[in-house]
Amino acid sequence: MMWTHRRVLTASLVGTAVEFYDFYIYATAASLVFGPLFFPSTSPATQLLASYASFAVAFFARPLGAAVFGHYGDRIGRKSTLVVSLMLMGGSTLAIAFLPTYQAIGFWAPLLLCLMRFGQGFGLGGEWGGAALLATENAPPGWRARFGMVPQLGAPVGFLFANGLFLLLGQYLDDAQFMSWGWRIPFLASAILVILGLWIRLKITETPEFATMLERQEAAKAPAIAVIREHPGALLAGTFAAVACFAIFYITTAFALGYGTATLGITREHFLVLQLVAILFMALSIILSGWWSDTRSPRGVLIAGCMMSVPMGIAFGPLLGLASDSAILLALSSGLFAMGFVYGPLGAFLPSLFPVRLRYSGISFAFNMGGIFGGALAPIVATALVARWGTSAAGLYMSAAAALSLLALLTRNRARA
Questions:
Q1: Which of 109, 151, 383, 414 has the most CB atoms at less than 10 Å from its CB?
Q2: Using one digit for the tens of pLDDT, what is the confidence trace for 318-357?
Q3: Which residues, including other chains, have CB under 8 Å from residue 105's CB and lie 6 or more apart?
């Protein structure tokens, strides 16, 4: 049994690590190189905003992926659906490595980039929900939140691989080499991680709860429709509970990287080092949140995380604006530490909102709709707000997102926490 649990947890962790690696290399490249390479030459600020707009495309594709993969995940099974979603996401990421630039093919370049970004988001729409269920539906009594936080650790692991690779490239390539071909290497490397993820996932079996549901012939004919009709309150609560984690993460990573390098004049490699140190605080808080959730409740820990995030957001902008290493590191570390407490418990909280027969669709919809509200426009809105009102506005954006998630959690029936 212990070996089975290890294999399941490894499969959920590796899959989400690959998923977030793919997403983060795009976010990093969007902040650093996609603007001048794939969009018309106007002003650097306009190119950066256009690059962030392409970044947002995936968030709008994710609910569509959630509908499709959720349907099959609730009718056919978690395992097979996860394999297909990983292949689609990995294939789209790999294809970006071979795209020609705007200088080579004009407007076809941003169109193809957005198409591949759509494929990333579509695959990711079914990835996180399946990985969370793979862990929680195999958890022994009293361990649901700790099992549920394992796939959440894929976020810092994927981030470390993604930004670590960009950092290494910066050490060995000059700016001209990096802009010419070096940025393509992280997208090529994703193929290795996808193969590893597939190899592990093909060795696992279906979750016990889903297998029991199939034996009882309780599968829904149209899970997505059933979720909307039968559990609208749970869907809304789950959606807005997830808003804070997306807003916090993409402002402390994608926005902060773009702002630090373009506005503050910090070198790319130096800022990546600061982010790599800060992400360790997120990994720590995810682990702590899992243990705490099993002793209290996932909902209670999420509430505490949102309450922590409101003052964090107020302090974030002024700290970032100081432009010193210590202040920036404090801003990033505190932001990502708070993010772990509004993200780690979601792996156990969201599945608790829906019955087994609708769970894949329900949590995938909620999580990915939360991504639209919290993450899709975060770098764009933060960049625009900062241009007008200064860095404090970016932090207040996070505080507002945390307050919205807090309201959703407080209004959710405690019995379903």
A1: 151
A2: 999 898 999 999 999 999 999 999 999 999 999 999 998 8
A3: none
